[in-house]
Write a structure and sequence with these properties.
about 220 residues; mainly beta; Lipocalin; eleven-stranded mixed β-barrel; about 10% helix; globular
């Protein structure tokens, strides 16, 4: 007898088009944010260097996404960081934060324009005040991929980010990245942290916006 297999192809049919209403713990991230007192601790030849940075983050809702029966709601984000001392960009990052309501799975994808990408995962409840996701080098599901140079000179062995939501509407993050720096025996703990304040509200996701415009036209006739 051939064993039954699960259905990996059929997508959900009862999908709510309103992403902002289905983001679970990610809802409080939606919108635009800014802070001027972020702290970066990075490796340098003479020892760890501490830099204070200015950060802007934009989180905007995307349409629901399905992997067969798996359904995600999420936010596309862009991080842009500068410093008071320099005009050039200090850090730039793109990616998605995704939430699977059926399981509580939270994902962060990230890509930086120095040849590195990662997919980090964790779990959270819909009303969680803290979210933690983790990625490890060598993992084939939630892993880290870097250029040959970065693998040799500044190998990233793990990445972890903790988000904390505060009662005053702000939120904070701490990232811990374990690096193996060429020529150094001990791993280096590269850390960034910041607390951000809202500067703008999110837009509706494209599907929800289309339906809202259609409803407005129908209601006016």
């Amino acid at each position: 007898m051939i064993p039954a297999t699960r259905d990996i192809f059929t997508e959900p049919t009862n999908v709510d088009p309103d992403t902002l209403a289905n983001l679970g713990p990610l809802r409080r991230l939606a919108g635009r944010w800014e802070a001027r007192k972020g702290v970066d601790l990075a490796p340098k030849p003479e020892g760890p260097e501490r830099r204070v940075f200015i950060e802007k983050i934009d989180f905007q809702p995307i349409d629901p996404q399905a992997n067969g029966p798996q359904l995600f709601y999420g936010l596309r984000y862009h991080i842009h960081i500068t410093t008071e001392e320099e005009d050039i960009t200090f850090h730039d990052q793109l990616g998605y934060w995704l939430w699977e309501p059926a399981t509580g799975l939270v994902l962060q994808t990230l890509a930086i324009p120095r040849g590195q990408v990662a997919l980090a995962s964790g779990f959270a409840t819909p009303d969680a005040d803290e979210i933690v996701v983790l990625s490890r080098r060598g993992a084939t599901d939630y892993g880290i991929c870097s250029t040959t140079f970065l693998e040799q000179a500044f190998r990233t062995d793990s990445y972890r980010i903790t988000l904390t939501f505060h009662d005053d509407g702000t939120w904070s993050y701490v990232t811990d990245t374990e690096l193996k720096v060429e020529g150094q025996e001990a791993p280096f703990r590269h850390q960034d942290q910041n607390t951000l304040r809202r500067t703008g509200d999110p837009r509706p996701n494209p599907w929800a916006a289309i339906l809202a415009r259609r409803a407005a036209v129908s209601g006016g006739t």
